[in-house]
Amino acid sequence: MVRHHIKDIGLANKGKLRIEWAAQEMPVLKSIAERFRKEKPLKGIRVTACLHVTTETASLMETLKAGGAEIALCASNPLSTQDDVAASLVKNSGISVFAIKGEDTKTYYRHIKDSLSIKPQITMDDGADVVSTLHKEEKALLKYVIGGTEETTTGVIRLKAMAADGALQYPIIAVNDAYTKHLFDNRYGTGQSTVDGIIRATNRLIAGSVFVVAGYGWCGRGVAMRAKGHGARVIVTEIDPLKALEATMDGYEVMSIKEASRIGDIFVTATGNINVISKECFSVMKDGAIVCNTGHFNVEIDIESLKMLSKTKRIIRDYVEEYTLKNGRRIYVLGEGRLINLAAAEGHPSAVMDMSFANQALCAEYMVKNAKKLQKTVYSVPESIDKEIARLKLKAMGIKVDTLTAEQKKYLQSWEMGT
């Protein structure tokens, strides 16, 4: 059996069925896997993937393996692993996995290093922890790496900062920047799965609640949209005047986080920044306020300050920690401040991850073919890949679109014709 460190190999059969269920909604990735199986574009390529170990990720891993890759997979968040999926990948797919749901920070980074032991040529990241570890602690392995991909907004921000400082040692494609990724995964996937996680963790009614969304990027847009659909009074907090204006014209109330803290019932952070909900916010929240995060890292909620303000803490439900402040008010933190949609729920629906992971697979293929031509910086997904994925998705959905006539093409390419 391949190298692994997982919770229980006995969960493999359950995981296999769940992977099969998710794969039914991933026709684009299936079509790519069929081509990869014939063409083997990744033959002999070693891939270290640091992603949420979910049923959808399993389909991506199997697609890469179909293309000829050797894979080592670790989790990109300590609470995002689905242990039965990890077991199935090891037992049924022959893929090395180092991931256990609820692993501590030390184990999390040990698993990253375990996954790097294959001396990867391609890295596949979600949050840039593998890239960071390579550049800080495993520099000797950089000579093997030809390129990588990055899945999420937070990781892209980190990598662009590295590139700007001249620290990045190999080219990386920002999968998150693809239209077929962030317009759908971030908006519809995060929107549905975040609200799903909140409901599973709390069983609270969303309708009629004051629902505060911090950040109006594509993830924040999706959360606000779904909360509104559930009947909540949605408040958006922002630092960007353009996004604040957009949120206002989308029909939401916009105010400062401090002001919103006084009236909110449920708070969701979606900014990618630190201490968005701070000591000042906790000090004015009403009794029973629920706080959670859907940004990649557990830094958006200042939990250390909350601990200092509190006299007691207890786990009152799975993924729900009750902090009782010194004045008697209670604040509930979900999923330890980590990604609530993966801590308490199952992450994004497979239909949107189909496009996101199709980008990952095709960008890995692109990197193998073009790495020698690329600089040590962060690239957007090639437009041809983005459009091909959209075309394949529409085809799978049975949707037909128009094409330009010769006359229309000529008109768009000319400047002589007017009214």
What features would you highlight for this structure?
419 residues; globular; Rossmann fold; 44% helix; alpha/beta; 17 helices; eight-stranded parallel β-sheet
Offer a concise description of the structure.
By secondary structure, this protein is α/β, with parallel strands linked by helices. Helix content is 44%, strand content 17%.
Commentary on this structure:
By secondary structure, the chain is an alpha/beta fold. It is 44% helix and 17% strand. The chain has two domains: 4-181 and 348-396, Adenosylhomocysteinase-like (Rossmann fold); 188-343, Rossmann fold, CATH 3.40.50. The strands form two sheets. It has an eight-stranded parallel beta sheet, with helices on both faces. An eight-stranded mixed beta sheet has the order 10-9-8-11-12-15-14-13. The mean pLDDT is 97.
Q: How far from one another are the termini? A: 70 Å
**What top-tier CATH class of the largest domain fits best?**
Alpha Beta
What is the C-alpha radius of gyration, as a whole number of Å? 22 Å
Number of helices: 17
How many independent structural domains? 2
Percent of residues in β-strands: 15-25%
The side-by-side strand order for the widest beta sheet comes to 1-4-3-2-5-6-7-16
List the uncertain runs: none
Largest sheet: 8 strands, parallel
CATH superfamily of the largest domain: Adenosylhomocysteinase-like
CATH topology of the largest domain: Rossmann fold
Fraction of residues in helix: 40-55%
CATH architecture of the largest domain: 3-Layer(aba) Sandwich
Shape: globular
Computed structural class: alpha/beta
Overall pLDDT metric: 97
EC number: 3.13.2.1
Pathway: Amino-acid biosynthesis; L-homocysteine biosynthesis; L-homocysteine from S-adenosyl-L-homocysteine: step 1/1
GO molecular function, one term: adenosylhomocysteinase activity
Catalytic activity: S-adenosyl-L-homocysteine + H2O = L-homocysteine + adenosine
